[in-house]
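Work Package 4 report. The design task specified in the project plan requires that, given a folded chain encoded as structure tokens, an amino acid be chosen for each position. We show below one input record used in the internal validation round.
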């Protein structure tokens, strides 16, 4: 590996780690937000609906994943789940007051995951959700 590539890879790893810490700090100091830690079972995640009693936005951390998900309860009582991974160069994105930001190259997304400022061109990846009894199921495939 060339020195230049090694330095670039090392910097990206550091930024990814720092972004993860920053996300945890932002979530910890935000009212009503929590990080829900859960296991991936049969390519899906279970989130208790009671988690949305205080806030319509929650963060989900699947065990073994490098990126968290944000889950938003919408006005019509459906849920939207997005991966907090920049679609430009796969770095962690963090919440801002009105959307999400990738600190590496400055890509910005609105609260629905649509790109508002590049260099990213694609929206944040979304996952299908469904309600089963007292749980929200997030389907990670299909």
């Amino acid at each position: 590996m060339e020195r230049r590539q090694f330095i670039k890879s090392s910097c990206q790893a550091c930024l990814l780690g720092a972004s993860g810490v920053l996300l945890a700090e932002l979530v910890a100091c935000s009212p009503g937000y929590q990080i829900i830690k859960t296991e991936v079972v049969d390519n899906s995640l279970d989130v208790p609906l009671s988690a949305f009693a205080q806030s319509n936005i929650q963060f989900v951390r699947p065990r073994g994943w490098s990126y968290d998900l944000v889950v938003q309860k919408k006005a019509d009582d459906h849920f939207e789940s997005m991966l907090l991974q920049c679609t430009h160069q796969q770095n962690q994105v963090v919440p801002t007051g009105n959307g999400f930001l990738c600190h590496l190259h400055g890509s910005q997304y609105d609260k629905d995951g649509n790109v508002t400022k590049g260099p990213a061109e694609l929206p944040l990846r979304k996952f299908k959700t469904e309600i089963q009894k007292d749980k929200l199921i997030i389907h990670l495939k299909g």
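Residues 3-29 form the longest helix (27 residues). Validation will be extended to a larger panel in the next phase.
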